[in-house]
């Protein structure tokens, strides 16, 4: 069974040099990047994130997202909470509904770290 990654203490967008562009990746940065990538390494989460990124305001309600992936609202909420815990999404309660919004800086930060020959 794979070893679980620790919970993130800081869910702010990762800030480290591109892989291969610095002498080495610090252990803390490696854990932070791995946790974020592990959260993204799920087809349902990628589908939800792609849908949210395609929305004009980059947000959506769990009640509207469940039919998109053909899962129950509690299951969708679980996936969204995993993305929120890594700082890739934020959430806001509006009455009885919970809306999740993409944190573009967090997505861009992962892209920068994985960009080959960047900077």
**Helix/strand structural class:** alpha+beta
Briefly, what CATH class? Mainly Alpha
Beta percentage is 5-15%
Strand order of the largest sheet: 1-3-2
- Assign a percent range to the helix content: 40-55%
Counted up, domains total: 1
Summed over residues and divided by their number, the pLDDT gives a mean of: 84
**Gross CATH architecture:** Orthogonal Bundle
End-to-end distance: 38 Å
Low-confidence stretches: none
Rough outline: elongated
Secondary-structure blueprint:
Elements (H helix, E strand, L loop, with lengths): L26 H14 L2 H12 L4 E3 H8 L3 H13 L3 E6 L2 E6 L1 H11 L5
Antiparallel strand pairs: 1-3, 2-3
Report on the architecture of this protein.
It is a single chain. The chain has helices at 27-40, 43-54, 62-69, 73-85, 104-114; strands at residues 59-61, 89-94, 97-102. With 119 residues, the protein is of the alpha+beta class. The protein has a single domain (27-114), classed as Arc Repressor Mutant, subunit A (Orthogonal Bundle), CATH 1.10.10. Helix 3 (62-69) crosses helix 4.
Which features would summarize this protein structure in a list?
three-stranded antiparallel β-sheet, 119 residues
